[in-house]
Amino acid sequence: MNRKVQHKAKKRFGQNFLHDKRIIGRIVSSINPRPDENIVEIGPGLGAMTLPVLECCKKLTAIELDRSLIENLQVITAPVGELILHQGDALKFDFGQLPAEPKLRLIGNLPYNISTPLLFHFVKWADRIQDMHFMLQKEVVQRMAAGPGSKTYGRLSVMLQYYCQVIPLFEIHPGAFNPPPKVDSAIVRLIPHEKPPVQVSDMRLFAEMVTAAFNGRRKTIRNSLKKYLTEEQIQQAGIDPQIRPEQLELAQFAVLVNAVKKSM
Predict the structure, then answer these.
(1) Taking a C-beta distance cutoff of 8 angstroms, is the pair 42, 13 a contact?
(2) How many other C-beta atoms lie within 10 A of the C-beta of residue 243?
(3) 97: alpha, beta or left, given left = phi > 0 and alpha = psi -120 to 50?
(4) Distance (Å, whole) CA 16 – CA 146
(5) Can you tell me the distance from the alpha carbon of 55 to that of 77, in angstroms, rounded to the nearest whole number?
(6) Of 54, 104, 123, 253, which sits with the fewest C-beta atoms within 10 Å of its C-beta?
(7) Cβ-Cβ contacts under 8 Å for 244 (sequence gap 6 or more)
(8) Rounded to the nearest 5 degrees, what angle is found at the Cα of 114, between the Cα atoms of 112 and 120?
């Protein structure tokens, strides 16, 4: 039985606790948890999603930073199923220590103040992950799913779409949380590609060049990427040096990176 816990949300942890049962049910339905799956919840908080997911799968791993929430999570989940609880920072968590089979299914209401670093940490383990279902700021989900030519298309779009298929599911109003955030939220599904959609010869260089391009997003790529390629080299790669980075498709970023690597 769930017990009512008095817990003041901590701003430093980016805590906004979900309480709307209709929304919780919709999220759990989207995840569709089943027994014998390797499900990992990031930031279970007060257990709003933990309990209904655990009722379905009977065994769940969770990573929670806030020590003051640990005891309550252990108490409320004990009658429902087995909760394997890791107290610590998900940003530093080594997912390699978890069983490799079946593949991981990550879920969670991610702290909005560190959601982007968390996403980049998770995709490092993409080959061990079946899928991810996260609640994020609506604007972040829009950026993740954006295509070339969009105002929201940027570094996050390119990097995540290299690793995953990005599927926005539905939006969530601020009143579904306590305390209500000042922004709208959304649920997104990420499915790691079995094979990368483009071939990149150097991932470190790819990440570096994508960052450099969007740091100068108002510049043409001739200027924003001049550290890496001359105008002539960009033209030889079949790309117009006068276009701006938000016009470049993922495949074109790969072409440019591979051209730099080849010239080294």
Answers:
(1) no
(2) 15
(3) alpha
(4) 26
(5) 9
(6) 123
(7) 217, 218, 219, 220, 221
(8) 115
Q: How far is CA 118 from the centre of its chain?
A: 6
CA-only gyration radius of the chain, Å = 20
Nearest by Cα to 190 from 216, 219, 160, 211: 160
Rounded to whole angstroms, the Cα distance separating 70 from 87 reads: 7
Q: How does the average pLDDT of the chain come out, rounded?
A: 92
> What are residue 59's DSSP bridge partners?
82
Low pLDDT (below 50) residues in the chain = 1-5, 9-14
- One-letter amino acid at 231 equals E
The residues facing 46 across adjacent strands are none
User: What is d(CA 135, CA 129) in angstroms, rounded to the nearest whole number?
Assistant: 17
From the list 33, 64, 30, the residue with the least C-alpha distance to 47 is 64
pTM: 0.91
CA–CA dist 244, 89 (Å, integer)? 37
Q: So what's the pLDDT on residue 216?
A: 85
Chain centroid to CA 102: 20
DSSP state of 245: G
Q: Which two tokens stand for residue 214?
A: 């969007």
Round to whole Å and give the CA distance between 230 and 222: 7
Amino acid, res. 169: L
Length of the chain: 264
Cα–Cα separations (whole angstroms), residue 146 to 65, 95, 102, 250: 31, 28, 31, 12
Q: What pLDDT is attached to residue 9?
A: 44
HSE value, Cβ hemisphere, 13 Å, CA-based, for 264? 12
- Write down the pLDDT at residue 123: 96
- Cβ atoms of residues 257 and 221 within 8 Å: no
Contact 60, 39 (CB under 8 A): yes
